[in-house]
Structure formats: structure tokens, C-alpha cells
Design brief:
Elements (H helix, E strand, L loop, with lengths): L3 H6 L6 E6 L5 E7 L2 H7 L9 H9 L2 E6 L3 H15 L6 E2 L7 E4 L8 E4 L8 E3 L5 H15 L19 H4 L13 H15 L4 H16 L3 H20 L1 E2 L7 E9 L2 E10 L2 E11 L6 H12 L9 E4 L6 H12 L4 E3 L4 H31 L1 H11 L6 E10 L2 E11 L2 E2 L5 E4 L8 H25 L15 E4 L3 H13 L6 E6 L5 E6 L2 E4 L5 H34 L7 H10 L3 H5 L3 H5 L6 H14 L1
Parallel strand pairs: 9-12, 12-13, 14-18, 18-19
Antiparallel strand pairs: 1-2, 1-3, 4-11, 5-6, 5-7, 8-11, 9-10, 10-11, 14-15, 15-16, 15-17, 19-20, 20-21
């Protein structure tokens, strides 16, 4: 058995990473330390202002483990890797895990290409980016290939010279077609150099060239050609306008600032490449209630730059962070070139950081409003229903519906809403086994019996294993049962629950003559509900969802079972003839009523097969 006090005495006074685990061996927290002995012991001393989150975490610690490293820098790398792998509950976490697009120029090839890439490898290619818009990257690549006639194929040169005829791109003047074997590599590289200038933001040359060509074509009355150059000019100008100058030094840098309110924080990053702002992105951070802004920034920098393939030369931060020197050394090693962390105090750079902070605050504010509205539609709506019915709380609601056509393929649906939101992982389908005709009450009785008996059995098995039954998919029972109908369906549900000795409130969703929800049937009376309320809207969504789910299941069974059982049982009718029959006739009734002559008008149906189909339907009757 792990004795915390005894294990604390064994801690080495060396750098490393420590891992806190709970009684179920789950990872609560991962941290690094210059001195493991001092750092880990500090968690188990009397409260010294660590904050409520850490205090709560300490109470859950059942054991800890640690990994010794040679240096604090190694501990930093290992800490990041473990946090990204296990995403512990009490670490401040970077919520987003995105890969950004790059423009890749394959300089290592004989005739290089300009490609879209999601990763930056250590190869002989040159990369531009990262960019925040994949669509903009694809548009830029297409424009470059149109302007400079670069190849887009995957052929290997010189091996594939003359292997095939040039593709369509060559015939519409979008490729020089080096595949013919008669384009000198020097001429191709010259075009490629112009494309690289374009990617570096030097648009003046291509703009002048296109304007001259447009004017020349217009003077020669080659209007279609002039229009083509005009469209290219517009495309280049559009790209040029998006590349706004933000700094005159031409360096790569990321500008990082955040906004924090309560347990929520948003980090805003401006990406500057070659002195140009190429885009921005925001990131959500969780578990930040006890952290100040500097701690959150530090957590973000460590996690984000341990996974991104590109590290700029400079990170401009909103505040000083405690491990700035250590992180600089780590990033320098990652990049293979010097990286600086700076906190600008005056001038244009400081204003850029302020702008990033304002953007983060705006995102946080907008999200709070969105979350508030969403909670009104979900949690607030569930509370409205609970108040209307006089229930203390409604966390989980289950709604049931029956679907059939004249008693064919009776099916039942169960949809689940928790905290006012659909929980699709807990939806269930039931194919009715004991009812053959169109008896909705009997079908509902079977569905409810199967649902709750299964849940009771699952709950008993989980208790034997000392697990919480509420963690199961069937053993977790609802706070409210919603029946698609009024008094009759509610009474069926109450009878099933009574027989199983379960106490769960049951409510009917009563519809008007137009099949719209008009109220709720509960405790033997119909309760009107305000149609403008969020509670009414939620009831309607649940009712529609139960109906949709049942109809979809029934439709799939009709497609698989009804057609197959009726047509495929006819001698000589296989998949091809079945499809031909269903294409030609509107319904099975139409096939049943057709004469042999009408059946044989279908090319796939010969006289013998037509006779078998006619005989099958008329003998059955």
C-alpha cells in the first residue's frame, strides 16, 4: 500500500517531473520541478495560499510518482509531452489542438512544385506560413500556378520525360509542361524564382507585367486575353491587400495576449511572417480559476510550441512569465536558432499586444453571451419544465415513440436529453418482437419493459463490480419520462413502472389537431404551456427528435426488410429485377395489381418471370 508520508521522505533533490494520481489511478496533475523533494512535499503542507483548485486536487491524491531528469529543460519537455498525452484534470490545458496550413515549395525536385501542406518537415523544401485560412492558402497556390505555369503533377523527372502527353493544364496555358522533356530547368527555375518573390510579398513586378500585357492585348483588340489579364490583376491585388505590413524589420514573430474572467480564458495569437500579419487565431484555456495571467500565458506557450512545427524568432507577450529564460533555451533548441521572449512596453509593438488582448476579450465576451443564450435554451428550459410540473430537478429526460405502417415492422425509439441537450450516444432503437399488428399501446409496453429491465440488470451487474450504476448507458434512469401522446400512453408507462417497482415521473406530450404540441399531461390533468417559452421549445425538440428517430429506423427496415421479403421470395427475382420493378412501379400495390403483359414491358422481366410474379401475388391472395 502506498504510504504518502513514507514516500515523501524518499523524494530525490533533483530536477524531474511528478505525476499525481487518484484512487482509480487516474492522472490528476503533471508538474515539473527543479527540486522534486521540495516541490512535491509542498503540496502536503498546511494551506499556504495555493488556491481552491489545488486544495481540491490534493484531497484526491491517492499516490504520486516521479521521473528524474538531468536538467530542468529536460523536465520541461517531458512535462509538456505528458500533459498533451494525458490531459490531466487539474492542469491548465490548451483546449484547441489545430494544425495550420503551409505553402510548401519542393526545391529538392528537378522541377519544383508549390503545394499545400499541414506539416513542416526537415527536408529540402521551403515553407511559407503558417496561415490561419486553408481556403486562402489554396487560392494563393492556384493563383501562383496560373501566373507562372508551374506543374501540379506528381511525375518524377527526368524519369518521366515524354512518358505521357501533356495534361489539360498545358493546353489552357497554365503549365509549362516540363513533362515533354523540352523545357530547360533553368527557364523553369526562373519562373519559380518569380513565384518565390510573390510569396515573399514582392508584388510590384508581376503587377506591372500584367498591366502591360492587359494594355497590349486591348490595343491589339484581343479582348478575351485582356479580360484574362484583368482577372489575374484583380486576384494579385486581392492577395496583396491581405498582407498588411505590421513591422518594418521583416522578422517572424507571434504576438500573444489573453483575457480572463472567472474560470474562462481566451488566448489570442497574431501570426506575423516576414513583417506581415498573415492571420490570427484564438485558443481556449480550461482549469484556470486559480491562475493569474502570467501563469496562463506560460502554460499556453509551453503547450502550444511543443506541438507546432514552426517556431518564430520572437514571441511578444502581454506579461513577463516566470520561466522565460528556460523557455527561451528550450525553444531555441527546438528551432535550431535563437528565439526571444519579449514584453514590449512602448510603441507600435506594445499597441499590437494591446490589440491582441482586446480581441481576446471580445471573443470571451461573445462566447459568454452565446453560452448564456445556449444555457437558456437547455438548462434553463429544463428548469422551466421542472417548475411547471412541480419537480425538484430534471437532469435527464427520456422520450419514447412508436412507428409502423399498418402494423408492418413495428419499431420503438428512445431519445435522451441531459441538461437540455440531446445525448445521442444514449439513443436506443427497439424492433418490436411480441406485437404483430398496429397496437401502439402494446408496442410501447414492450419497449418500456425491455428498456427498464435491461437497465435494472445492468445496474445490478455494476453494483457487483462496485461501480456506480449511473455511469451505465441503460442503468442510468431518467428524472422524467416523456411519452409521445396523452393519457393512454402515460397510463401504459405508469403500469410498467408500477410492475417493476420503479418511481419515475411520467408526462405525456399532448398534440392538437394539427399534430403540434399543445400541452403536457401529468398527474391526470392537462397542463397548458406557454408556446413562447424555452420550455415549450425544448418539449417540441424532444418530441420531434423521438419521432424522427423512430421514422428513420422504420424507413431503414422498410428498405431492407419489406422489399426483400416480398420480392426476393419470388422465384427468378434477384437484385437486378427487384430494382427494375421498383423503378417502374410506384409501390408494391402497383406490382401486385399489374398483369403479366404489364410486367413484361420491363426489359429485365421475361415472360416466364412475369408469370412467376403474377402467380406469386395472386396465389397468396
Amino acid at each position: 500500500m502506498f504510504q504518502i508520508e513514507e514516500e515523501l521522505k524518499k523524494l530525490p533533490k533533483q530536477p524531474g517531473v511528478y505525476i499525481m494520481r487518484d484512487a482509480k489511478d487516474g492522472i490528476l496533475y503533471v508538474g515539473k520541478a527543479v527540486n522534486l523533494h521540495n516541490r512535491v512535499r509542498s503540496y502536503f503542507r498546511p494551506n499556504i495560499g495555493r488556491g481552491p483548485q489545488i486544495d481540491k486536487m490534493v484531497k484526491l491524491i491517492d499516490r504520486f510518482e516521479y521521473i528524474v531528469t538531468d536538467s530542468e529543460l529536460e523536465a520541461l519537455v517531458l512535462e509538456n509531452n505528458l500533459i498533451k498525452e494525458y490531459r490531466p484534470k487539474y492542469n491548465t490545458l490548451l483546449k484547441d489542438d489545430k494544425t495550420y496550413p503551409y505553402i510548401k515549395v519542393t526545391l529538392g525536385e528537378a522541377y519544383p512544385r508549390v503545394l499545400f501542406s499541414r506539416e513542416m518537415k526537415k527536408d529540402r523544401s521551403r515553407y511559407f506560413g503558417p496561415y490561419t485560412s486553408a481556403a486562402a492558402v489554396k487560392d494563393t497556390i492556384e493563383l501562383i500556378n496560373r501566373l507562372y505555369g508551374l506543374r501540379t503533377c506528381n511525375k518524377k523527372f527526368p524519369r518521366d520525360f515524354g512518358a505521357e502527353r501533356p495534361c489539360l493544364n498545358h493546353h489552357i496555358d497554365r503549365c509549362m509542361a516540363p513533362c515533354r522533356g523540352c523545357v530547360p530547368e533553368e527557364a523553369y527555375r526562373e519562373r519559380l524564382g518569380q513565384a518565390l518573390d510573390f510569396l515573399n510579398g514582392n508584388y510590384g513586378g508581376i503587377l506591372r507585367e500584367l498591366e502591360e500585357k492587359m494594355t497590349e492585348a486591348s490595343e491589339n483588340m484581343e479582348f478575351e486575353e485582356a479580360i484574362r489579364y484583368r482577372e489575374l490583376l484583380a486576384s494579385v491585388r486581392s492577395v496583396a491587400q491581405k498582407q498588411k505590413i505590421t513591422d518594418s524589420d521583416g522578422e517572424d514573430k507571434d504576438i500573444i495576449a489573453l483575457a480572463k474572467e472567472g474560470t474562462d480564458a481566451v488566448v489570442q495569437v497574431f501570426f506575423v511572417r516576414g513583417g506581415r500579419l498573415i492571420g490570427r487565431e484564438h485558443f481556449y484555456m480550461t482549469h484556470v480559476s486559480g491562475d493569474d495571467r502570467a501563469e496562463i500565458l506560460q502554460s499556453f506557450v509551453k503547450q502550444f510550441y511543443s506541438g507546432t512545427p514552426f517556431i518564430p524568432r520572437e514571441l511578444m507577450l502581454q506579461e513577463e512569465i516566470a520561466e522565460a529564460r528556460l523557455i527561451e533555451d528550450w525553444l531555441t533548441r527546438q528551432k535550431g536558432g535563437r528565439v526571444y521572449l519579449r514584453v514590449p512596453k512602448i510603441g507600435a509593438r506594445e499597441k499590437l499586444v494591446e490589440l491582441a488582448a482586446q480581441n481576446a476579450a471580445l471573443v470571451l465576451s461573445q462566447d459568454r453571451e452565446r453560452i448564456k443564450r445556449e444555457e437558456g435554451r437547455t438548462i434553463g428550459a429544463a428548469k422551466e419544465i421542472a417548475d411547471l410540473l412541480g419537480l425538484p430537478h430534471i437532469g435527464r429526460m427520456e422520450a419514447f415513440d412508436i412507428s409502423n405502417i399498418s402494423g408492418f415492422a413495428n419499431v420503438g425509439s428512445m431519445v435522451v436529453f441531459e441538461r437540455g441537450r440531446a445525448k445521442r450516444s444514449d439513443y436506443r432503437k427497439f424492433r418490436i418482437q411480441s406485437v404483430s399488428g398496429p397496437d401502439d399501446y402494446a408496442c410501447m409496453k414492450e419497449v418500456l419493459e425491455r428498456r427498464f429491465l435491461h437497465g435494472m440488470q445492468e445496474g445490478a451487474e455494476m453494483k457487483k463490480k462496485r461501480l456506480d450504476p449511473s455511469m451505465g448507458s441503460f442503468s442510468k434512469f431518467p428524472d422524467l419520462l416523456l411519452m409521445d401522446g396523452g393519457k393512454g400512453q402515460v397510463n401504459v408507462a405508469l403500469k410498467v413502472l408500477e410492475e417493476l417497482r420503479l418511481s419515475i415521473p411520467v408526462c405525456g406530450m399532448v398534440k392538437d389537431d394539427n399534430h403540434r404540441t399543445r400541452g403536457l399531461y401529468y398527474n391526470n390533468e392537462e397542463i397548458p404551456i406557454d408556446r413562447r417559452s424555452e420550455g415549450f421549445q425544448l418539449i417540441t425538440r424532444i418530441q420531434d427528435e423521438a419521432h424522427r428517430f423512430a421514422i428513420e429506423y422504420h424507413r431503414s427496415l422498410r428498405g431492407k426488410s419489406q422489399v426483400k421479403s416480398v420480392l426476393d421470395d419470388i422465384p427468378g427475382v434477384g437484385p437486378v429485377r427487384r430494382k427494375a420493378l421498383m423503378r417502374h412501379f410506384d409501390s408494391l400495390d402497383a406490382i401486385r395489381g399489374a398483369s403479366v403483359e404489364e410486367l413484361c414491358r420491363i426489359p429485365e422481366i421475361n415472360e416466364r418471370c412475369g408469370g412467376e410474379i403474377y402467380k406469386y401475388f395472386h396465389e397468396k391472395n
